What we know:
By secondary structure, the protein is an alpha+beta fold. Strand 6 (about 95-100) and strand 7 (about 105-110) form a beta hairpin. The chain has a seven-stranded antiparallel sheet with strand order 1-2-3-4-5-6-7. The chain is built from four helices and seven strands, in the order H-E-H-E-E-H-E-E-E-E-H. The mean pLDDT is about 95. The protein has one domain (about 5-115): SMI1/KNR4-like (3-Layer(aba) Sandwich).
Amino acid sequence: MNLFKSFVEKAIEQDKRNNFAESKVENKRIPKCFKEFYRLYNPIDVEVEIDNRFVHFIPAEELDRISEEYNLESNCFIFATSEGDPIYYRDGKIYSCVFGRDGIIEEVLSDDLMSFFKI
């Protein structure tokens, strides 16, 4: 079964209010590995629990705004947040970071995309 389709089904099982839809939004920020997700399963209003963390996914229409808001390096694709912290894809891994007094503290959430989307 398709990774993203499986994720969508499990997300809806977690909460029937999770809402996905097809999208025609073309955004150059979206990495190749995420294009199918945003084209077929754009997360309109989606929050799921992943590894004891509530993750809010960003719809395609808001990707530019959220990227500007967090102002991370250009190679970081922010696609979700958790408790106000960005969750992003970079170099094949999924990260989160906290903006603290001592600067940005980065955490690897998953070593690959597939592991992250298996909820």
